[in-house]
Every structure is written in structure tokens, then in C-alpha cells.
């Protein structure tokens, strides 16, 4: 069929999974349109640095091809340090037990499990969410419609319309893919409410500081853990890459997490950025070891931001009646806690799988979405269970079917 006359694949949301799916469709010559609610890619902050697993890198490489992946790979940071997180007692500054088997007898709180970090060449590979999104955007620009928030869909005898917040509709597509994150209206409509995202109650703070503030740590992936607070555990994860620690004009980021109740944004407004978040981070780390204090004392206060920790149903991705013309990818179908860094890696696997199935079928043919959903449920359910299991240990969260949803 002439690509200029066939109905496009419609994609709701312009995040990582959606853009990578767009890259796959570009290579296959399948027409598509992406509808993003933001007015541009720079409309809002892009969030924290992402760690890429072997599965995530393989998925990205399969979509971008050798040349495109080399460009992506060159933009990634590669950190040594033995391929596993190094845990530091935030109060004493010394290394502590890395997993439960190393914990001393009678320990008051369980130790957090050791996470394997290396993915290629014995290195921990990471890239900022913003840089990753910009890379996936390249070439997709003509296919994006900014300031279009999708709130639902309407099926036709041979296709589907995306319905926008203002009541207007898109052109008719042959498939609609909901890649619009944890608040996805597409996912809820498709699953008839079976897809749920729970608020775990735990909160975190992202921060930035000049790279010189990280010299006391040195190269590696570090987890700073404080169990001295009677109200619960506080910890920070940071990735210190080589080569930049002497440049005060460069910045590294860190992510602070805490058990429910320890971090609260003023008036529960988690859209606040800057001083309110910075002050809480500095307060929680006030008695930490001098080796670690520069990360907070020298932080760029304007860059501090709160975040909520959410998770899909811990038992895994539920089943729903398959609709051949609608499906979902990424956080819209399997939101995960940040524990283990699994979420983004699972999302790009969705993009690679669905893109491959569409390419093999030459478009949205009977059975494509069913095959995608059956295979996705297997690896995504496993990922959600792992992410939730680690979050129970790290954040002290506990959710079930009766917990609050977002």
C-alpha cells in the first residue's frame, strides 16, 4: 500500500517509549503521528539519570540500528566500579553490608538487596532522561503534534480516532498506542479500569551539585543509607562518572528517597521546585558524614525537585479483552518504582517488540496487538514484581488492591 494513502499509527504521548516506537516505524516506512500534551520537548524538566540494563540496550540497538545506536552509545556515560552498587553508611561514611546475607545478626532493619549494574563492557551505562528523549526525537519531529492531550478514543469499522481534551478528533488511524504515562486515559479505557497505578506514599527529591562535590566519593555507583532516623530510612543514589570531577562547571545528580512520611512537599504540592525541596534534603542529611555533605551543601537549589513514587499492581500486568486497534506501552501499562532502575528499560523493550511485530506484519494486522500484549505481560509482570519487591525493602512501602490510586 502507498504510505501516503494508508492510515497512520496514532501514538498518544511523546515520552521515551513513544519516541522509540516512532523510530522503529520510521525505519519500517510505516506512517505515524505522535500527540504530545506539552508544547515542546523543553516545556518541563526531564527528570533524573537513567541506568540502562543489558535488555534495555539490546532493545534500543535493535530499533536504532548500528549507526543510530553508535550515536546513542556515544552520548551515554560509562561508569566503572565493579559493576555493582557500593553501599555507604551515611552517618559514619564507611561501607556497610551490601545485601541481607551480609547483615549483622539482630539488625534492626533489613539491608537493601545488592543490584547488578553493569550492562556492557563491565560498565554501568547511563544517560539523562532529557538526552535520551532528544536522541529518540531526532527524525520524528515532522510526525509530532505538540499541545495535543489525548483523553480517549473512538473505534470505527476499520480504524480508530484519538479524542483530544477539547473534544476534537485526530485523523483516522489504523492503530492507537497509549504511551502517555501513568495518567493514561487510553490505558484505562482499553483495560476497562483493570490497569491501575498506585501511590505508594513514599516520596523523593532530585538534586544537582557541581561535580567537584562528588570527589569524596570517587567513580562508581553509590547508595548512601541512613537508618538513624526513628521515623524510617533515608537513602541517596548517585552515579559518579570519571573524567568530570575536576570541572566545577559540570554537574552530577543524586536522587534521595525516604520511607512514607519523611518527605512532604509544602501543602502536598509536588510540582514545587527549588528551595522547598532543597531545604528538606539538607535537613535530612544534616548529620551525615563530611565525605558526603558537599553533595547537599553545594547543591544547586534551583534544580531541586520532589517526586512521587508510584507502582502498578504488584502481582503483574493484568489481562483485559484484546482490542486489535488499541494497545499501550511503557508506564501507561506498567508503572514501576525507581528501585532497581527497571522502568525505562522495560518501556524500551515494549517499543522494540511492538515495532518489530508491526514491521513484520507490514502495519496493524489482525493478531499484532494480541501477540504484543501476551509477550509483554511476561517480562513486564516480572519487572513490576522485582521493582515492587526492592521498593518494599528500600522505601518500606506496602500496597494492595485497596491502596490509593493516582
SSE arrangement:
Blueprint: E1 9-12, H1 16-28, E2 32-35, E3 49-52, H2 54-75, E4 77-79, E5 86-89, E6 124-128, H3 129-137, E7 144-145, E8 150-155, E9 160-164, E10 175-178, H4 185-191, E11 197-210, E12 220-226, E13 234-240, E14 251-258, H5 275-284, H6 294-297, E15 305-312, E16 326-328, H7 343-361, H8 368-395
Helix pairs in contact: 1-3, 1-7, 2-7, 7-8
Report on the structure:
Residues 94-125 are annotated as: Disordered. Its cofactor is FAD. Residues 143-386 form the FAD-binding domain. The protein is of the alpha/beta class. The chain has 8 helices and 16 strands. The chain folds into 2 domains: 9-45 and 137-196 and 313-395, 3-Layer(bba) Sandwich (FAD/NAD(P)-binding domain); 84-117 and 199-311, 2-Layer Sandwich (D-Amino Acid Oxidase, Chain A, domain 2), CATH 3.30.9. α7 runs antiparallel to α8. The longest helix has 28 residues, at 368-395. It starts with 8 loop residues before the first strand and ends in an 11-residue tail after the last helix. The model is unreliable at 97-114 (pLDDT under 50).
